[in-house]
Amino acid sequence: MTRTRHSLPSPFANAPDVWQAELAPLLARDEQVVATLETDLDVHLAFSPGQVVLTDRRLLARSPGDEDWAVWPLRPGLSLQHHDHAGVGTLELHDAISRLACWRFTLAHNVAALRLHDRFAEHLAARLTGQPVEPLDEAACPTCKAPLPPDQEECPICSRELHEAPSTWTLFRLWRFARPYRNQLLAGFLLTLASTGATLVPPYLTMPLMDKVLIPYQEGHPIDTGVVALLLLGLLASALLAWSLGWARTYILALVSERIGADLRTTTYEHLLQLSLEYFGGKRTGDLMTRIGSETDRICVFLSLHLLDFFTDVLMIGMTALILFSINPALALVTLLPLPFIAWMIHLVRDRLRTGFEKIDRVWSEVTNVLADTIPGIRVVKAFAQEKREAQRFREANRHNLAVNDRINKTWSLFSPSVTLLTEIGLLVVWAFGIWQVAHDQITVGVLTAFLAYISRFYSRLDSMSRIVSVTQKAAAGAKRIFDILDHVSSVPEPTKPQHLDKVQGRIEIRDAAFRYGNRGVIRGVNLAIQPGEMIGLVGHSGSGKSTLVNLICRFYDVTEGAIHVDGIDIRSLPVADYRRHIGLVLQEPFLFFGTIAENIAYGKPDASRAEIVAAARAAHAHEFILRLPQGYDSLVGERGQGLSGGERQRISIARALLIDPRILILDEATSSVDTETEKEIQKALDNLVRGRTTLAIAHRLSTLRRADRLVVMDRGQIVEVGNHDDLMAREGHYYRLYQAQARNVDTDLDEQLAASAEAKPPLKNAP
Amino acid sequence: MTTAPPQLTRDPHGRLQLTAADGSVHEGVVPVRAFPIAAPTEGIALVGEDGHELAWIDRLDVLPEATRQLVEDELASREFVPEIRRLRQVSTFAIPSTWEVETDRGETRFVLKGEEDIRRLGAATLLIGDSHGVQYLIRDLFSLDKTSRRLLDRFM
After folding, report:
1. Yes or no, beta carbons of A47 and B105 under 8 Å apart
2. Residues in B 104-123 with any Cβ partner in A closer than 8 A
3. Plot region of A732 (φ>0 → left; ψ -120 to 50 → alpha; else → beta)
């Protein structure tokens, strides 16, 4: 364990500034504060602030709600115990006879508590032996024990935790995806402008048609065919122009939006693949599938259809307003009167609709989730005859969906007719005011006709514009959920200043590692150094943290505390993909992708030659059974490897690991799911694989670990014994008991044996 | 497991001590509820330091008063599921979001990492996990005040 201490010029170098004033009168002249802890719970677990301070000679504490500090001088027999359970940490001060004090805190303060706990032991020992505590020059991060860069307080590895929320202007963030297409977008914009202008010509032409042709005719003048032909030709020309421009615009913008949608989808998926297993553990498949599948599509439709329409509408309204004002300002003013009302209504409804649509999305995910849960588990559903219940669950999800939809439709259904009503009223006002103006000879009949032609378009656009509210909100909700994925920083992030490992020797060092899954501490205080080429057998009951340890070494998760070094480099400072290239993994349940056997073997090295593939298969003892298949290496296997037995699939996955020739090899119960005969086959294959590589093997059956150089016995998240088989047997500890339990069952069936070891598993993993 | 009431005492270190039917004494015994939310007063296991079950209590209310008190005190000191009474403020409706809440254990704030950390347990009960693994309980969604419900609604 790396111990750190700064040289301390001030007694408060280790205390927050705000405490100085309070602490100063309590301390002796040369007394040094070495660690502090802010607690946030009282003994009854109510939120309440308190403090614990460790100096080089005393422990001081102020309990929540107390004014005075309690003081315990460091003396023999004192001990400080730390444990945590269900999100609450506890520090207890004991002497030989009884408990002296107890402090509780949420795990936000756990790091400080652990530091105080460690320092307490050091300083107590120092006081007893008279030896000063050895200060270390190197500053290290209190959480991960990684050395800190000079002049930096925060650890670059730990400070990555991100708690800020993404901005709410989510839709504008789509610009990142629109940028590459800005030229096309500009062209689309200009075309929109032109085509909108073209559609505004026809109503304008109705004015001369009325005033110069029809009304003079009613008053007895003959119709001027030349003018009529010209005007009608103008109408036709503008219609054709609007049509062709509209076609070009829609085509260009639809192409662009489809591409933006595709980019969005692939980017999201690529990002998703980078995220750690922890993220996938917490999400449901159906939900992720909806987000990437249908929601990118919705955004795409929004961009190509609705946004475009909306834009055209805005332009149309702006241009129309200009024309109307140029013809007759008074009438134009009256015409535009309902506009603010409609804007106000839109604003009013917006908020309710947005939350509603977010809700609908979530409910929709729920519906998909039911499907994603049930379909892969269909064998279980049918075996237990629970079809009815699953159908009921789906019905329930759909009912919820309906209920949420009904609620939002209540608002929504009121919205559209109201806009229409306002439109009608607006028309009425224009008619009334227009007739009055005509009667007073302020405008001609032609002008009124043109106005009515304009505003019937105008209002119909307004009506469709109001629809943009809902689609925008839907798209924004979709975009938010997409960006939720995109903004999620992987909990196994890429290092900012990556180091490179070209040639890995395979020395692994685990320092003081702890891992917490949610509020459950899975492993803690694990220290282990593995030499290059050494084979380590990990032994323990299920749930003792073996697989977690292996997952940490693979960097599927990052350690919560402590560090893992490979060849002396913290694995967190290596690029993730680079690092994993050096690791071969063989799992209990081998996963075969849809494709040929050759493709599956070459999964980790797609450019492998056929000779390499065959060599790997040979070494994995898979060659012969592959040849027995009708299409040999070109046989297709499905996602769960239909048509292949468990042992065969396992040997394919061993070949897969062999092909990438990793320096570090991890065997997670590689032989557990097969019978003894097959196990021997696989064992032979594994022996080839293990040779010369640093190997970590997990096995229930201790006999499979006979080749291991050292056995590491884990129990409830900690390493309890290390040594070879004979040592551990001689010690008559955990390993001895495990071995005895298996030896007794050696004649019994494998299933019974597994059941026995499962039964022996402790019911509570985290008991203090 | 045992049907007779377990013989529990508390030692000066504040730990529970169980004297089993065969006379053996176990130190540092911890009571664990089997169904902390669905049936908190039924099914309580007494678990030893090594994580093995030592005794099983079917129902809390049939225990002798003194024993029950011991078990309840120990449970109270181990259980930390603050019950949210009111949501005062949330920093944002997107996640991660910092919530300021009033609970039965006082006021506090926590970071909600994802919407999936809000879990429904039955029609009106919610369990909310924060970024440090503390679980907050909303026992009855409908008994919250309007503002809290409106805020909460945005996440569900």
Report:
1. yes
2. 105-108, 111, 114-117
3. left
Tell me whether strands A710-715 and A535-539 are parallel, antiparallel or unpaired.
parallel
Q: Which residues of B touch A284 (CB under 8 A)?
A: 116
CB proximity B51 to A under 8 Å: yes
Mutate one of A45, A355, A517, A737 to test the B interface: name it (highest B CB count within 10 A). A45
Last-in-domain residue among B32, B54, B78? B78
Q: Is A132 on the interface with B (CB under 8 A)?
A: no
Centre a 10 Å sphere on the Cβ of residue A388 and count the other Cβ atoms it contains: 9
Examine residue B50 and state whether it is found in any structural domain, yes or no: yes
- Encode pLDDT of A13-28 as tens digits: 555 666 667 777 777 7
Q: Give CA angle at A21 (A20, A25), nearest 5°.
A: 100
Q: Is this complex's ipTM strictly greater than 0.90?
A: no
Which part of chain A has CATH 2.30.29.30? 17-129
Token pair, residue A699, equals: 């096995």
In the listed set B78, B101, B120, which residue is the last one of a domain according to the structure? B78
Q: Is B37 at the interface with chain A, CB within 8 A?
A: no
For residue A279, the chain B residue with the least C-alpha distance is B114
Give the C-alpha separation, A78 to A98, whole Å. Answer: 10
Cβ-Cβ contacts under 8 Å, A41 against chain B? 80, 105
Q: Are residues B97 and B141 in the same domain?
A: yes
Burial of B94 (0-12, 13-18, 19+ CB in 10 A): buried
Residue where the block lists tokens 């977008």: A185
- Could you say which of B30, B93, B95 has the minimum Cβ distance to residue A767? B30
Nearest to A763 among B51, B80, B129 (CB): B51
Domain with CATH 1.20.1560.10 in chain A: 170-487
User: How is A260-325 classified by DSSP, letter by letter?
Assistant: HHHHHHHHHHHHHHHS-HHHHHHS-HHHHHHIIIIIHHHHHHIIIIIIHHHHHHHHHHHHHHHHHH
Residues spanned by the domain of B15: 7-78
Same domain, B52 and B70: yes
SS3 percent helix, strand, coil of chain A, rounded to 5, is 55, 15, 30
From A89, A92, A125, select the one nearest A107 (Cα to Cα): A89
> Under a CB-based contact definition with an 8 Å cutoff, are residues B87 and B148 in contact?
yes
pTM exceeding 0.90: no
Task: Please check whether residues B102 and B141 belong to one and the same domain.
Answer: yes
Considering its fold, how many domains does chain B have in total? 2
Supply A751's token pair: 């299933």
In a domain, B1, yes or no: no
Residues of chain B neighbouring A85 (CB-CB closer than 8 A):
78
Q: What is the CATH number of domain A17-129?
A: 2.30.29.30
The answer for A109, left when phi > 0, alpha when psi is -120 to 50, beta otherwise, is: alpha
| pLDDT over 90 at A168, yes or no | no
How big is the A-B interface in CB pairs under 8 Å? 121
In a shared domain, residues B28 and B89 = no
Same domain, B63 and B38: yes
Which residue in chain A is spatially nearest to B118 when comparing CA positions? A282
pLDDT tens across A314-344, in order? 888 888 888 888 888 888 888 777 777 777 7
B31 domain residue, yes or no: yes
The end-to-end CA distance of chain A, in Å, is 22
CA A366/CA A369 separation, integer angstroms: 5
- Convert the pLDDT of each residue in A497-512 to its tens digit: 777 777 888 888 888 8
User: Does residue A189 sit in helix, strand or coil?
Assistant: helix
CA angle B131, B133, B134 (to 5 degrees): 105
Q: Which CATH architecture has domain A170-487?
A: Up-down Bundle (1.20)
pLDDT tens figures, A367-399? 888 887 788 778 778 888 888 888 888 898 888
